């Protein structure tokens, strides 16, 4: 009985041992990184207005955010949310800017 069991296990193990590992192909190289457009990089200017330090953030020359740091106080931000040049004050820099696109209207 024991001998039959050993023969049966050997018969089942033979095809598994005879299998060849699959032939693997090398991974292709990743595509090169796109060139950085210097016009899309944000430009930061630091100005002194009175005693306040003002940092202007621009992309393609368009002002989109100001960070005003008073000498004795907490910095606050003036942000152009809609792109129309009207700055609104925000005391804390938002961590999430929700897209405001119109998907469908009636």
Automatic annotation (TrEMBL):
Q: Which Gene3D superfamilies match?
A: Protein of unknown function DUF2782
Region (Disordered) residue ranges read 18-40
Question: Does the entry feature the keyword Signal, yes or no?
Answer: yes
What InterPro entries is this protein classified in? Answer: DUF2782
UniProt-recorded name of the protein: DUF2782 domain-containing protein
Q: Which residue positions does the secretion signal occupy?
A: 1-18
Pro residues bias (residue ranges): 23-35
Which keywords annotate this record? Signal
């Amino acid at each position: 009985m024991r001998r039959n069991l050993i023969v049966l296990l050997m018969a089942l193990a033979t095809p598994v041992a005879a299998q060849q590992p699959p032939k693997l192909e090398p991974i292709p190289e990743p595509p090169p990184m796109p060139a950085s457009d210097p016009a899309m990089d944000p430009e930061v200017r630091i100005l002194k207005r009175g005693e306040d330090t003002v940092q202007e953030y621009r992309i393609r020359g368009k002002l989109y955010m100001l960070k005003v740091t008073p000498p004795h106080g907490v910095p606050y931000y003036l942000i152009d949310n809609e792109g129309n040049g009207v700055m609104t004050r925000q005391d804390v820099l938002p961590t999430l800017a929700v897209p405001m696109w119109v998907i469908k209207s009636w």
